[in-house]
């Protein structure tokens, strides 16, 4: 079990591209791109103790997300090894412009399902429930809006059965306009 209310970025890794920035603002973490096209910001939680986070166990994560803008951007919140893009083994949420998708991946095999159209400055409650080798269910504001049951895109096929990124929060802009995403809390539960 892991939970955070983002009182600090201590213990989190950040990677900034272009004019990207990460900051704790009140009771949440803000990630921003700045106004340079192609700018990005990545915040990750990579636990020191490896082999604890496993693909062969049922798990779920919950969080909240709000976006300042809903055009010309990519935003990801996921569990797994998705620091280098949507093709790394993971499950979670992917936003392109205003479209919220659920996503799973094993190596380069990616599956996604469209869940909702997001509005700017609205807080959304997100939850992904992972059932190894079976499916991932995606909830938005406590409503099941989609599932992925594509066996070839399930990350439980990883030979190591473990992963390192407990939390990945990423934003990138595709125009010279500042973009910002906000997350106020994150909770992860994995069966033993």
Written description of the protein model:
With 192 residues, the chain is mainly β. Helix content is 0%, strand content 53%. It has no helices and 16 strands. The strands form two sheets. Strands 1, 3, 4, 6, 11, 12, 13, 15 and 16 form a nine-stranded antiparallel beta sheet that branches. The protein is globular, with a radius of gyration of 15 Å. It starts with a strand and ends with a strand. 37% of the residues are buried. The mean pLDDT is 90.
Summarize the structure.
The protein is mostly beta strands and 192 residues long.
Q: Indicate the percent of residues in helices.
A: under 10%
Number of helices: 0
Quote the beta fraction. over 45%
The gyration radius over C-alpha positions equals 15 Å
What pattern of helices and strands is seen along the backbone? EEEEEEEEEEEEEEEE
What's the story with the biggest beta sheet? 9 strands, antiparallel
Count of distinct strands: 16
What's the overall geometry?
globular
Which whole number gives the mean pLDDT? 90
For the terminal residues, how far apart are their CA atoms?
10 Å
Class of secondary structure makeup: mainly beta
Note the topology.
Elements lengths: L1 E3 L8 E5 L3 E5 L2 E5 L7 E6 L13 E9 L5 E8 L9 E7 L2 E8 L2 E9 L6 E8 L3 E6 L2 E6 L18 E7 L6 E4 L2 E5 L2
Antiparallel strand pairs: 1-16, 2-5, 3-4, 4-15, 5-14, 6-11, 6-15, 6-16, 7-8, 7-14, 8-9, 9-10, 11-12, 12-13
